[in-house]
Design goal:
Radius of gyration: 26 Å
Strand content: 5-15%
Helix content: 40-55%
Largest sheet: 6 strands, parallel
Distance between the termini: 64 Å
Number of strands: 14
Number of helices: 24
Length: about 650
């Protein structure tokens, strides 16, 4: 291992730069963040984790271009004062990096190091540029880092000691030899544990960011994915098998986030949290224990493969509710089984995708989904099939993009061998319509029209509010999520009413809110009625007064109450108590004492739940959130279609001057 002894004699200054995301991306949340008094959606987790891994003699300053874009002369000064500039980026941030290198950084002597998914996937394009933007990257970047930062710290320090000044030479690449010399499109190294090592990471450097600038914070619990979807590049640099952090590490990172003062959303950035079922259960237990200890300060959101919907995993699904998850993202991709088979997405054909959505909706966890249009099995009709599936399942957030061949994936290599790749510069925006290859069962124009049809069908105002209300009906909020109105929502609600309802003169907006209000009242009155019924039963305490199904419902209520509010009871104690009740019910020998306890806990649960629907109730709060989110989706969709139409007109003018 490289020795840092000499480095500790001298303090170093590192400048961390998070490039800007384009505004016309569904995940930029550009039209949402100002409603909630924030500046960006998420912090640059990779950069602040990298900073935590670096030797202690490195002092860091972070510039997040999504939060604040400093004037060029200030950026230039900071670049010149730094010993090195470190950039972490996804492909969608390429344009921002190019602008920095061609602008404030041009001519400076400070070396630039680029890591993250972008250089891991597009390293060949940077090392051997074929267009102007790639040439700027080639000339401006000194060091490319493939894969995870934890394996590259020693080589980075060694390189900077030997090369303290920027050069215009071809960038040096830090990459394992087995990866560099693998056959194009090969995945033979994906299970190599000498490349993909255990996740032994310190908590991120949250002191480098102002957490109040962000809509939600982020953390990682696992890396890697066991599946081999032919279009996916993530496994190429994060590994083809799941690796989980220890529960102690997870709790320490949650505590670090808690100590920043942040309360609210936490995005779990795992490639696929559904890796090893035993590890997932431990992760969820750790999150449940933390949430219970600190009174549920966070609402989690994560990505998962759809195989979690198998009936055998139903107890795990319930744990997502207990841990305080309010949303899950699934790569559904396409409702057509043959299209999924073509993508090597076989796991999606092993479950009922409709039932997947229902299972999570029933426990109050919203389903977000990704869809891909343009695969070799798709015809123009596939666009309508995707639209129909989204409408039938009422998935509100349905991120749909065209199939994109990413370098080093089997899909890319196959299309290259078939001569179907097009010379188009990849934007990284998965909802862009810049087509990268020649489709098989449709023309390029039909493919472009198909993606436009999907976006316009799903993201016009009336359809957004229709799906939003059905989501409210199907997915009632649970007591493990703070769904009640908070003071921070007042500005968002006011701006939403002003901009979406009054200025746009949108009757659908106010109709949607009124329906949400009535849904709160309906829930409130139903729970109040249920409480009266339980009180009547409590007066007799006779097992014959309720049938077994009613007892099961009360036991479920009692369990939820114990988990949420009896924080001094350990998870094992609660589960043992519930198991005892269930067994007594099965044997038809529930005594008066147990019956009284179950009734009492169920009543307390119902009273807590009833309070969630006092005005302004949980459905109305969620309705405002969905309305604002829907406005963002609608605006992004309009930008994409409008820009595409402008490009189409330009192409026609060039063809017929």
């Amino acid at each position: 291992m490289y020795s840092y002894r000499k480095d500790f004699l001298m303090q170093k200054k590192g400048l961390l730069i998070a490039p800007a995301f384009p505004s016309d991306s569904f995940w930029s949340y550009r039209y949402i963040i100002h409603y909630v008094n924030r500046k960006a959606a998420f912090p640059p987790l990779g950069l602040i984790t990298f900073a935590a891994l670096m030797p202690k003699n490195w002092d860091f300053e972070l510039i997040d271009m999504n939060v604040c874009y400093p004037p060029s002369h200030i950026l230039r000064k900071k670049i010149e004062e730094a010993d090195a500039v470190f950039v972490g980026a996804m492909s969608i941030q390429k344009k921002s990096i190019v602008e920095l290198l061609a602008g404030p950084a041009k001519g400076a002597e400070t070396p630039w190091i680029l890591g993250g998914p972008f250089p891991s996937t597009y390293r060949d394009q940077i090392l051997s540029p074929k267009n102007a933007s790639d040439q700027i990257l080639h000339d401006g970047i000194d060091l490319l880092v493939w894969g995870e930062a934890q394996n590259a710290i020693d080589p980075i320090i060694h390189y900077l000691n030997a090369n303290p000044k920027h050069t215009n030479h071809t960038p040096h690449l830090i990459i394992p030899g087995k990866v560099e010399h693998s056959t194009p499109g090969s995945r033979k190294y994906l299970n190599d544990r000498s490349i993909f090592k255990p996740l032994e990471l310190p908590p991120p450097r949250w002191d480098l960011v102002n957490v109040n600038d962000y809509r939600a914070l982020m953390m990682q619990t696992t890396a890697g994915c066991k599946f081999r979807c032919d279009f996916c590049d993530i496994v190429q640099f994060n590994g083809g098998f799941p690796r989980a952090k220890t529960t102690e590490n997870i709790k320490a990172e949650l505590k670090a986030i808690y100590e920043t003062g942040h309360r609210g959303g936490v995005f779990i950035v795992d490639d696929n949290i559904m890796g090893i079922i035993g590890e997932l259960s431990k992760i969820l237990d750790a999150q449940i224990e933390f949430q219970r200890e600190y009174d549920y300060p966070f609402q989690f959101f994560v990505q998962s493969s759809v195989d979690i919907a198998k009936d055998a995993y139903d107890p795990i699904i319930e744990k997502f509710k207990f841990a305080g998850y309010d949303a899950m993202f699934f790569g559904i991709e396409n409702p057509d089984p043959d299209a999924l088979k073509q993508m090597n997405k076989k796991q999606n054909n092993q479950v009922d995708l409709y039932e997947l959505v229902k299972k999570f909706n029933r426990i109050g966890v919203e389903v977000h989904a990704g869809f891909i249009f343009g695969g070799d099995h798709d015809t123009p009709d596939a666009a309508q099939q995707i639209v129909n599936f989204v409408k039938e399942t009422d998935i509100f957030t349905a991120m749909t993009g065209m199939l994109t061949p990413l370098p080093h994936t089997p899909l890319y290599q196959r299309l290259k061998e078939e001569g179907r790749l097009l010379e188009a510069e990849f934007s990284g925006n998965n909802t862009d319509d810049d087509i990268q290859f020649v489709p098989k069962n449709m023309t390029i124009e039909e493919m472009r029209q198909g993606i436009h049809s999907i976006l316009e069908s799903l993201y016009h105002t009336k359809e957004l509010y229709r799906r939003a209300f059905h989501l409210l009906e199907k997915s009632p909020p649970h007591i493990f999520n703070r769904g009640k109105f908070q003071w921070t929502y007042i500005k968002a609600a006011f701006l939403s009413c002003l901009n979406q309802g009054i200025k746009r003169v949108d009757p659908h907006y106010f109709l949607f809110l009124s329906k949400a209000f009535r849904l709160d009242w309906k829930q409130f009155t139903q729970i109040r009625k249920k409480i009266k019924e339980l009180n009547a039963v409590c007066e007799t305490l006779r097992p014959a007064a309720y049938n077994p199904d009613d007892y099961r419902e009360m036991i479920s209520y009692a369990k939820d109450y114990l988990l949420r509010y009896q924080r001094k009871m350990h998870l094992e104690q609660i589960q043992a108590r519930v198991n005892q009740w269930v067994e007594q019910l099965r044997q038809n020998r529930i005594g008066k004492q147990e019956l009284a306890e179950i009734h009492n806990l169920a009543l307390q649960y119902l009273r807590k739940r009833k309070n969630m629907f006092h005005y302004p109730g949980a459905h109305l709060v969620k309705a405002f959130e969905l309305a604002v989110k829907g406005f963002h989706y609608e605006q992004v969709m309009k930008q994409i279609v409008m820009r595409s139409n402008a490009h189409s007109s330009a192409r026609l003018l060039r063809r017929f001057p």
